[in-house]
Write a structure and sequence with these properties.
single chain
Length: 67
């Protein structure tokens, strides 16, 4: 005998699924905000080079390359 489809039950289940998805979306972590150890080390290296004046500005680099 074919199974009877209960539309009220389907709507209820969809509503529950939607609430779960909204909760998940609200609590997801932005993966772009996570620093790996390599990212952290590179950032510290950049900061040290910036403080010591070892960096070349974009404009100066373009001049040096004749662009």
């Amino acid at each position: 005998m074919p199974e009877v489809i209960d539309l009220k039950e389907i709507r209820h289940e969809l509503r529950v699924i939607r609430e779960d998805l909204d909760f998940i979306k609200g609590h997801m972590m932005d993966v772009d905000s996570i620093l790996t150890e390599d990212d952290y080390l590179s950032l510290n290296e950049y900061r040290n080079e910036k403080e010591s004046g070892k960096l070349t500005s974009h404009e100066e680099l373009k001049r040096e390359m004749g662009l």
